[in-house]
Amino acid sequence: MTGPRGVLSTLLIRAALPLLAAGLLLGGCAKPSSPPPPAGGPSHAADNAAARPGPPAAQRAHPGEIPALGTRTRALVPDGTDQALVVTGRATYSSDSTATMYERDPVRGWMAVAGPWKARNALKGWTDEHWAGDKRSPIGVFGLTDAGGRLPNPGTKLPYHQSEEFLATGRGFRGETLAGSFDYVIAINYNRASGLSPLDEQRPMGWDRGGGVWIHVDHDGPTQACVSLGPDHMRELLRRLDPAKRPVIVMGDGESLAR
Predict the structure, then answer these.
(1) Which residue, 183, 187, 173, is CA-closest to 220?
(2) How far apart are CA 120 and CA 99, in angstroms?
(3) Contact 204/193 with Cβ under 8 angstroms?
(4) Residue 186: which H helix or E strand, with range?
(5) Engineering a disulfide at 139: which of 46, 120, 128, 157 sits with its beta carbon 3.0 to 4.6 angstroms away?
């Protein structure tokens, strides 16, 4: 899914709210009913660069490494990152996936601390070159720096923006209601400026490359581009994420992540 208008000011957001519900399903979790002018500014390479995995890894992961990640994918996890949510898609064109939370122990290396949880991704699966409206989730390693939702902060240490602007209405691809999908969201730092509300719609790579890609509450169906988790798992994830550990999401189909 792609969501609401760029947060140029509180007044503009409030004025745009009636248009939000009509535009939610047009391209991704946070796309408005009509695109704003492309946002300028430099590209945030560490947050926005999608992984472009290379050839399959010849060797298996060593003890203390995140299993099922190949050499190229592991190399994309930034130095100093000690938390990683790994979302592994069932297949390239599947919307079913699993999510496991890992933390890096200074002695034992990466250890699973939560999950695996059932998760969903975009209707048409995965891509390493995401474009607005393609109904595919971007493959890569992206920062997790900002959260928010319609409901109060459940205990996350991430900056949290509570607002009625996190509004999801209408029906999903399987006819399911979207109500409550944005009760909690975590912005995935694909084509966005970190350190801002998930509602912000700056697009450093341009509007045509999509954006507003979030982790949000599952609505029992595929997403536009986001990753979704059940509400209990969403709350647990929010409570675990710690900005001091520079958390990231590693996401893609299993074959791509194994490269």
Answers:
(1) 173
(2) 9
(3) yes
(4) strand 185-187
(5) 128
Long-range contacts of 76-79 (CB under 8 A, 24+ apart): 76/51, 76/140, 76/141, 76/250, 77/141, 77/248, 77/250, 78/46, 78/141, 78/246, 78/248
Amino acid type, 49:
A
What is d(CA 135, CA 168) in angstroms, rounded to the nearest whole number? 17
Q: CA–CA separation, 137 vs 150, rounded Å?
A: 23
The owner of tokens 């550990």 is 245
Contact between residue 224 and residue 122 where contact means Cβ atoms under 8 Å apart = yes
Integer Cα distance of 40 and 106 in angstroms: 40
Interval 118-164: pLDDT, tens: 999 999 999 999 999 999 999 999 999 999 999 999 999 999 999 99
